[in-house]
Amino acid sequence: MFDASALIIALTVFVLAIFIGYEVITKVPPTLHTPLMSGSNAISGIVIVGALLVAGQADGITGQILGAIAVGLAMINVVGGFMVTDRMLKMFRRSGEGR
User: Fold this and answer.
1) By the 8 A CB rule, do 85 and 38 touch?
2) DSSP H helices in 27-97
3) CA-CA distance, 30 to 32, in Å (whole number)?
4) N or C: which end of the chain has fewer CB within 10 A?
5) H-helix or E-strand spanning residue 31
């Protein structure tokens, strides 16, 4: 029922992912922030699909509520991220181009 070694392995992977993620993100030059944000928004789209699957297959009400919260938060992240990306890209347009 409770496997302590699996929990320790999961926590170790989680902590290592935090350190590696921090090191990778701090090394990104400012010119790559917009493409990186677009890529992370695509990943959040995948999270939405996973959250929908979890919410749909949950047995109890707790799983359904947590799945619905995950869908809502991922949607906020995707929409907000694409809005920020669009705004950043508009800064690089010439005054006569597009919108």
Assistant:
1) yes
2) 33-57, 61-90
3) 5
4) N
5) none
Tell the residue number behind the tokens 């109890």, with chain if given: 60
The tokens describing 10, both together, are 């999961």
Structure tokens at 72: 């809502």
Residue 73: C-alpha distances to residues 47, 55, 67, 81, 88 (Å)? 10, 13, 10, 12, 22
Q: How many residues appear in the chain?
A: 99
C-alpha 96/C-alpha 5 separation (Å) is 62
Which two tokens mark 16? Answer: 């290592």
User: Minimal CA–CA distance to 73: which of 98, 52, 99?
Assistant: 52
Q: How many other C-beta atoms lie within 10 A of the C-beta of residue 84?
A: 15
Model confidence, pTM: 0.57
Longest dimension (CA), the chain: 65
Tens digits of per-residue pLDDT, 16-49?
A: 999 998 998 888 887 777 677 777 777 878 888 8
